[in-house]
Each structure stands twice: as structure tokens, then as C-alpha cells.
Amino acid sequence: MLISALGHVIQKWRNNMDNTSRKERIQGSWFQEKMQTLTTNTGWHGSLSGVESEALLRGNENFVYILRQGEKSDQFYLTFVRGTEFIHLPFTVDYSTEQWFYRNNIPHFSPDLDTFIPEIMHCEQKDCKPLAQFAMKK
Q: Under a CB-based contact definition with an 8 Å cutoff, are residues 50 and 77 in contact?
């Protein structure tokens, strides 16, 4: 009984440490650098819904993209045109590696946003074009 109770206390302590560590990491300088890189990207549009993103992208050519805020402070979307479709790719920051992270069957990691975007869009870097017309300026 005592061992079970002790195990429960240790687990609660670990969970609390994980939450504290995550909070500290979000406030860390490396995370702030990632956010600065993202929010100053030509394609950053801030807090748009998927429908709003599609409306802005409608009529554009392949691989024109928008970067936008996700549901949480460390979650984001890359929305882009491919053919007649709009693709919405969720991505985040991986705290253990301090890199951008996206998973679609195979995990994709990159320390650099400029290489990360074409990698997860499955196109050449020269073909990726941010929609800058309505982008937010920081």
C-alpha cells in the first residue's frame, strides 16, 4: 500500500515537473527565436481559420502558402495550394530537439523554417511562394 502511494506521489511530481519544464522551455530564448523567425516570415498571417486561409489562397498557383497560428500557442498550420485543393498541415516545435516538427507517417524535423516548409510540402524550395499580399507585419 505504501509503495503504491509513493509511486502515485512520484508520478504526480514527474507530471508537475514536465509541465513546469514545458512552460520554461516556451519562455526560453530558443523558443522566442523560433517564434521571431515564424512571425516575421513573409507568409505569416497570424490567427486565421482554415476557411479564411482558403479564401485568401483561392485562385493562386501551386505551392503558394500561408503560415498561421494553431489552436495553442506552440501549434501552427502551413496552408497551401496543390492543384485544386487546399492542404492544411499542422506543425509545432519539438521541445526535446528544439526544431520544427511535423508528422505524416514519417516525422520531419528541421532547425530551419526555410528548409522545413518545402520538405513538408514535398516541393523544391524555389517553388514555395508565400502569400505576402495580406501578411501580418511585425
A: yes
Per-residue confidence band for 77, with pLDDT thresholds at 50, 70 and 90: very high
Residue type, 113: L
CA distance 116 to 138: 21
Closest C-alpha to 43, from 126, 104, 113, 92? 113
Give me the phi and psi of 31, to 5 degrees please: -70, -40
Whole-structure pTM value: 0.76
Single out the residue of 126, 119, 133, 131 nearest to residue 80, CA to CA: 131
Please enumerate in sequence order all residues whose Cβ is within 8 A of that of 125, keeping only pairs 6 or more positions apart, or say none.
114, 115, 117, 118
Over residues 84-131, the pLDDT tens digits come to 999 999 999 888 888 899 988 888 899 999 999 999 999 999 999 999
pLDDT tens-digit profile of 36-49? 999 999 999 999 99
Contacts of 56 by beta carbon, 8 Å cutoff, 6+ apart: 45, 48, 66, 131, 133, 134
